[in-house]
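Chapter summary example.
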Amino acid sequence: MKGKYTQKQLDDILERLLEYVIYSNELNTQIESVRSGGQTGVDEAGAKAAIKLRVQTIVLAPKGWVFRDITGKDIADEQQFKARFKDNNDLKTNDFKC
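The structure predicted for these 98 residues follows.
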């Protein structure tokens, strides 16, 4: 997705998609939880969407809390990793695993 979409665009797309799926009359099984690696891009967007839609969400971070920033640089920082989800106040510290 690099160069095609911004993180904000992916966040919006995944939120609309998950919302559509959750509230679809065609859904036979309720989505109970979402697990994500929390990596920049679709992983991050999916976790944010699930949190906003109040679906139980667990972010399984890679060892060292590594994620890639907008420039493609790898960052290993627990606080910065978690800060990407800060607008989603419902995500608790114990919902992150490394």
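To summarize the output: The radius of gyration is 14 Å.
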